[in-house]
Amino acid sequence: MSIDCAASNSRGVSLVELIVFIVVVSAGVAGILAVLSETTRTSADPLIQRQALAIAQSLIEEIELMPFTWCDPDDPQAATATGAFVGPAGCAAAVEAVGPEAGETRYGGAAAPFDNVNDYHGYDSAAETPAGIKDITGAAIPALAGFAVAVSVAPAGLGGIAAADALLVTVTVTGPANTVVTLQGYRTRHAPNAVP
Description:
The chain is of the alpha+beta class. The protein is built from 3 helices and 5 strands. The strands form 2 sheets. A 3-stranded antiparallel sheet has the order 3-4-5. Strand 4 (166-175) and strand 5 (179-188) form a beta hairpin. The longest helix has 28 residues, at 15-42. It starts with a helix and ends in an 8-residue tail after the last strand.
């Protein structure tokens, strides 16, 4: 009886081949797990971005719906003034300036509420006590506790509209995971308050 050496050598896998196979498969599995881990870790980012965008959109809409008049809206001539001065064609007493008037806050409460686009300049939810995102009544929204919002309002020309008659509103929302969303919009002064 003869033994075929070639047949017995072709069966099975050598130890070196097995080790190489294990190393290659382990490297592949490690790569796949790293990708899955990163995907899982950042899967909340789109939600955070959407929340920040919704906060910015709601606040910029709130601001742009406010009056933009030469005089403070409490001034009796606010609806008819044609310039930022005290006099017959201007304000009775209170010329509107950038920033809130003394005693005005976004929410009102014991103070007067913001009543003009300009009043929102410098608004910063992080500087409030307690800090955080609140609804228009001033009630905190616990689910948005990790977010903050800041507002800038500045005169800026828009096309053929002079800088005195247009405001650039910038709303910046910061949130978890280094999220920053900035929205800008313009608010223009409408007749009858335009300079003749």
